[in-house]
Design a protein that fits this description.
The chain has 111 residues and is mostly beta strands. It has one domain. It has one helix and seven strands. The protein has a six-stranded antiparallel beta barrel. Strand 2 and strand 3 form a beta hairpin. It is globular.
Length: 111
């Protein structure tokens, strides 16, 4: 999986280029990171809304996941993320600085 495919039960259904609009209906849903014990809700989809040239295939955006503050974090890396009640998507996820003392945030950046 390359991040531009969704995996519905191993079928590998292609969904085209992933966009912010693809993820917006999944805000609040739990994303499980295959092969780990971690599962976090998608907190928000962030994009700046600037106009892009016609040749750009998608607007850059970020996904922000909200996890609990723990002694260890989900390590940065490429994961297959299974969306509760939906497909699975491959993406690179990294822990980020989180000023709130009660949680740890993670991001996936799509350029």
């Amino acid at each position: 999986m390359t991040g531009i495919e969704a995996d519905k039960g191993g079928a590998g259904e292609a969904v085209g280029v992933l966009s912010a609009e693809y993820f917006e209906p999944h805000v609040g849903k739990i994303f499980s990171f295959r092969g780990t014990r971690y599962a976090f809700p998608l907190d928000k989809v962030v994009n700046d809304g600037r106009e892009q040239p016609d040749w750009v295939k998608r607007r850059p955006f970020m996904l922000i996941f909200r996890g609990p503050k723990e002694a260890d974090v989900l390590p940065e890396g490429l994961y297959v993320c299974e969306i509760a009640g939906g497909p699975a998507v491959s993406m690179h996820v990294a822990p980020i600085f989180t000023p709130q003392p009660d949680r740890q945030e993670y991001q996936a950046v799509f350029n």
